[in-house]
Fold this sequence. Notes:
The structure holds 2 protein chains of 2 kinds. Chain A has helices at 40-47, 72-81, 97-107, 113-126, 142-155, 172-187, 199-205, 223-228, 233-243, and strands at 2-11, 14-24, 29-33, 55-60, 63-66, 82-85, 160-164, 192-195, 208-213, 216-221. By secondary structure, chain A is α/β, with parallel strands linked by helices. In chain A, a hairpin with a 2-residue loop joins β9 (208-213) and β10. The two termini of chain A are 32 Å apart. Chain B is mostly helical. Chain B has a domain at 19-171: Orthogonal Bundle (MetI-like fold), CATH 1.10.3720. Helix content of chain B is 77%, strand content 0%. The termini of chain B are far apart. Classes of the chains: A alpha/beta, B mainly alpha. Chain A binds chain B through residues 48-50, 76, 79-80, 82-84, 86, 88, 90-96, 103-104, 107-108, 136-139, 152, 156, and chain B through 121-122, 124-132, 135, 139-140, 143-144, 147, 220-224. Chain B: This is Putative amino-acid permease protein YxeN. Chain B: One of its GO terms (molecular function) is L-cystine transmembrane transporter activity.
Amino acid sequence: MIALKGITKRFGEHTVLDGIDLSLARGEIIVVIGPSGTGKSTLLRCVNFLERPDAGQLTVGDLSVDAARATSDDILGLRRRTAFVFQNYALFAHKTALENIAERMIVVEGLSKREAHARAREILERIGLADKADAYPAALSGGQQQRIGIGRAMAAKAEVILFDEPTSALDPEWVEEVLALMKQLAAEQQTMIVVTHEMQFAREVADQVVFMEGGRIVEQAPPSELFTNPRDERTRSFLRKVLAGNAPSDA
Amino acid sequence: MQALNLDYMVGLVPVLLGYLPLTLGMAAAGMVCALILSCGLAVIRVSRLPVLNQAAQLFISFFRGTPLLVQLFLFYYGLPQFLSFLVSINGVTATIMGLTLHFSAYMAESIRAAITGIDRSQTEAAQSIGMTNAQTMRRIILPQATRVATPTLMNYFIDMIKSTSLAFTLGVTELMGATQKEAASSFLYFEAFLVVALIYWIIVEALSWCQKRLEKRLNRAYQR
């Protein structure tokens, strides 16, 4: 359903992603963990071509794209089958919460403004921000902005939602409400790939946890296995660090 | 020293105001055309379209690098020499053309700066929901750039209104031209030019007031 094969990305001489293979079934949730600068975010950004992979094969739903030969139609196709949640929310600054969620339905799906706004209102209900429909991003807390960001992704009805460290930019007080919303989505069988440092979230929600280092997947296993009995020394060392004492929140 | 002839000044006001529509009309026409042209130039510059980008750069360089008065003379007196269809060009058209080309060069650079100043995350967010480049520009980038560029563009509009006075050198009887004629027949130069100066000043002040209202409106989305 979603398959990445041999995804490779170089920035100049530096190989950031070195042949990543990953696949998810519908409704599956993969959490990607690993030290900073190991290409986790780049991997997500390659799936919708915010970064152009140098090589590899991407399959999302019924669309399969050879990264090296991707046309602009392929790229648009991938983007319309995926949704993305940004670390810094990246809400459209000149649009209200409601308009942020409705934008895709109007522009990409061609719905009338009225219908798009009605559907956006339903999503606002689901994310518990119905009272903020007419608020602009600048007037919302970080947590609220990120929930709108997730609402915008939900509006896409995408094959997969890609979460790029969704709680890393948040003040600690807002982290829980965003994770709660993500758990709600998980319970609704939303397919997702989540890059995060929230180990507790990974434990609770993930079907598979992927540990990445140096642009490669070192280890992949269900959380019960990866957290209690990691096979690779690098995984063990990473987990020792992040789980030492009180597990640090997303840093 | 002689006292100001206030009666003459008061009497002159309604006479000169009769020419206001022409002055404001030329400025408004120039501004609309310049906005369209400068947006086009700015988008060409930002998207670095080959050939067009170089052409836009050359255009901007020339029209920023030469005085407006020289450009007006070039269009009105110079070009008809080679382009026979321009022989019938009138002063008003030549002025609007000159104002459009001259100010669009400046405005293009302001708009370009405003576009490049919009955070990259806005473009990425638009791409992530599957918008095309054109949709991203039209629905996300340009509306936000408009807010950034508005104060500067309003300044250019104010400058443009004042620059319409140069039309008088092409024989157009607008606000300035009319004042010149009135002054020449009454010999009350100081009074006449003082009145016209005050008229320009009041127009610009009124516009500044509109500008504040407009900026407040455009900043609505950014209030915490």
